[in-house]
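ASSEMBLY PREDICTION REQUEST
Request ID: AP-0331
Submitted by: J.K., bench scientist
Number of chains: two
Total residues: 1095
Priority: normal
Notes: Please return the full assembly, not individual chains.
Input sequences:
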Amino acid sequence: MNGTKHLIMGLWARQPFRPLEKFIASLRRTAFTGDVCLCVEDVSAETVALLRAHGIIVERAGPSAQPRMTALSSRYFTYLEFLTRHGDDYANVMLTDPGGTVFQSDPFAAPLPADIVYTQERCRLGESAADHDAVVQAYGESVAHNMRDCMVSGAGATFGTTSGVLRYLVAMTHELSGRTTPITGAIDQGVHNYVVHMRPLCNAWLDQGASIVAAMRNVPDASVQISEQGVLIDGRRAPVLLQWDSNATTREHVRSAPQFRLDEAMQVAGPASGPATPVAREAAAATDAVVAYYHRERDAEWLPLFLGSLRCVSDSVDVHCVGDFDQSEQALLSQHRCIVHRAPVTDIVIAENVAHFYLSQVLDRLAAERDRVPGQVLVLDSMRAVFPRDPFLSKTIGLSLFCEGPMRIGESGFNLERLAHFTTSDERRLRCPIVSSALSRGPLPVAREFYRHLLAELVGRTELLSTHKVIQGAFNKLCHDGNLGFPVITHPNGAEAYFDFWPSGLAIDVRHGVRIGGTVPGIVLGAYTETELMMKLRIDLNLPTQ
Amino acid sequence: MSGKKNLIMGLWSRMTFDGLEKFIGSLRRTTFHGDVCVFVDAVTAETVDALLAHGILVERADRLATPRMNDQSSRYFDYLDFLARDGEAYASVMISDLRDVVFQSDPFEKPLPADIVFAQERCLLGESPVNQRWMAEAYGEAVAHNVRDCLVSCSGTTFGTVSGMLRYLVAMTTELAGLASRDILLSRGMDQGIHNYVIRMRPLRNAWFDPTDSLVATMHFVPDESIQTTPRGVLIDGKLVPVVHQWDRKKITLDYVWAAPQFKLDAAQRTPRPAPPASPSMAGPRTMQQEDAVVAFYHHPRDADWLAPFLRSLRCAGYAEGLHCVGAFKQHELVLLSQYGCVAHPIDATDPSLDVENIAHLFLSRVLDQLATDAASRPDQVLVLDTVRAGFLRDPFQAKTIGLSAFHESAMRIGDSEYNLHRLAQFTAPQADLLQRPIVSSSLLRGKLDIVRACYRKLFIEFVGRAELLRIPKVIQGAINKLCHGGGLDVPVILHPNGAEAYFEIWEEGLPITTELPIRVAGAVPFVVLNPVRETELMQAVRASLGIQ
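STATUS: Completed
Returned structure:
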């Protein structure tokens, strides 16, 4: 937790971009130069694009969401997951409801008064029916009575050091996990108040003086004054106004004042001076790259889905496509900031073998580039795929390979025959699961080293390439023999890549995005664009379904 | 995170200290110099004492337990909570079973090969009926079938950098949360099914399932011919593995570990307890030397039966820092205080005409002044109690914060209590708003030393020229309510509802109380329960939970 930037995080679900105008415009007019990350759920591709255009990091809530909870409650799990991945980049964090928040100055301009700072509303729990009911729903009547004289804290804005917010999120997720009542409605507000009052956290403070946030819901009209400085509450200008639309004076001011309007100039990727943009954020580390082989006859229908879904889940990844492209395809590739590598058309029967020669050549080219050598690469022999999440989210050491399903080599005549071209099939190999040759992932040097081994298997044996997908035999030989000199991680079907080619029996859950076998894979590969699963993914990502 | 210590964490539940001999004995003979933190659940006071004597940080495990999870599953929440609090003090972490783990060298001697390193067992998930069943019960047959050809990972040992371990623990607790509405988490070993699901179906960034046993050998499925015992230790396939897990599953390692001297504890291995983890904080930087301190007032006629359980419960709750008692002590009481590492501040017998709960604060204040004068041992925060009629359930400073912490006696308001109205009226004319405020107890206060001292200065100003007030029982509570509610203190005042930090078992509250483990008051675990009557059901449960009489 040694970062120096600050982070503002929120959830944006089932809404268009427009209601975020006040939040973004007001923030961009302050001195805040940190990152803004919005976890999105069920929003359109246009909304995602606009968020990114305004320098906002977009994170999909689905992979870390809790299916049995509402989005409002589940968001704490998503925030926690994000912070454990990126917490080291940040000094302080604000969790907020972006729809009801506007900024009057940088909320981190002054040092935080405690490790965790909760927002106080001007109301006691016993006086607010909604808050009282939320506590009752989560903990029962007697606990709500015990807390009746505690001030309400609004869950809509919480601040802290990164480690402080981590503690808060651990407490929130733990309390939510322990509830036996249905996690519905605004129960998260009840759980939040329970954590604030009944499960106090080290160095936490319910800010009685509205030093950072003024929660407007119960502020009397007499306390609100509009001045040239902005909205003053009891003569003071709070950096953040929460629930600005619940006070008539504030609502009118925010709706009419120019500082709450977006303008063209804000469509830059964040302040020029700070590394606030997703692209800039990634630039500090090596960018990852997807390298995919395109065969028109086979992949034409998939190209917009492949590119559209990939850009929906990851803006920063480099995309390289190798193949023979016509003008309309080139335009599409360009529109998605994809780098084209030309290769001649090949017979479709051998495309899945030949693809790897071209992919290997592209990897060599990337390694030779001085200023943009990728960190990790995901190599695909086809573009018949959709991305439900960033495919590099769980990248790791060594080479990642992917099982097509639970079927073993010995149970598949197709794969036995292909393996037999490269090695004898002993009992141990026959019991190994089938690894797909469709994709692989790893650090660039590891992927190139793997290709050296792979292509060595084919030296002097070009006749093998006429056997459809024969290269999968070589993949399975290499990855199960363990002689590659680097770790090989073999992922089961669905964990990272899901093969939608045959029934897997894995349950599909569409609450908070699409889950397969309880998890959200980084990529779903298929033969048809209109299977039930593909249609669900296209709807979830707001991709064209016609 | 270079230059930081490493950490080993584990759970010790319902067992005696003897079972830890091999773990501690072997670890202390390696070059490991980090911290060991043991979460205890239903263990005796002697076990806690012995752990502390061997330099081990003790945390109560039951604070975070959830009713529909056994301790094996809920331990991940404990680990995550600890790392979220104190992770900044550490570089790398091992979470470990304790009973059947021995060390042959420091597992952190070499840099970890990945941010998260999982331990393998030499068996496929599909070949282990028990692992297959756990996976199937939690996630369904199709998922279990889908991963049948993956090697089993043992959840008993996992290694990682702090940030890697946080990612792993968040993934585990998120999965556990998703299953918490079902009763399957009460099944022993189910956490291993979830652990294997996380590894295989929810892969984590920079995580690695180590098929080379580079850090740990999990013995159950290791063939006998791979095991060799030598004077250097246990070799697995000719390699000296830093950690041997499940050493009791193989006769050759069982015999070896039982017999070899390097696995025995000896007196020399009793080490001083480590300094508490120090994390930089917005609430003021803290040095490693600055401990916290509990300062309590003892009144023999009132508290004699309570002294031993007070001291014992505080130490059993894992609190190992400063402890001061002020009172007129008898010789055997001084011995008792010394036994618990408590500094005695003897006073002469007090004037019987003055109420003891009033004058207690005068003596407490003097002790605070003394503590403030010694720069070397000056505490960071203090908890002052006007009584020792209390039992502790956890470290009273676990949730310490800025400002002054004061504690509600109950949900009752001042205006609903003649007793408190009368006392408040000695200091201020109770306005309508004040009558609506809950009653703050004068029994205990917590905060940074200087803040509590400043509070005492303001408190005593209320009595200047009015010494006769000290004859009114507990009149000081009126002054405390005036200051806490009236804004007369220049620091934030954090008022904790009854049960959140301190539970006053005085009134019929109607709060749900669980006296079976894990003890809960309104779903929370207060650090202290105060009660003038020692033998209530809750008090008995508190003592029983700590293994004390």
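REVIEWER COMMENTS: The radius of gyration of chain B is 26 Å.
SIGN-OFF: pending second reviewer
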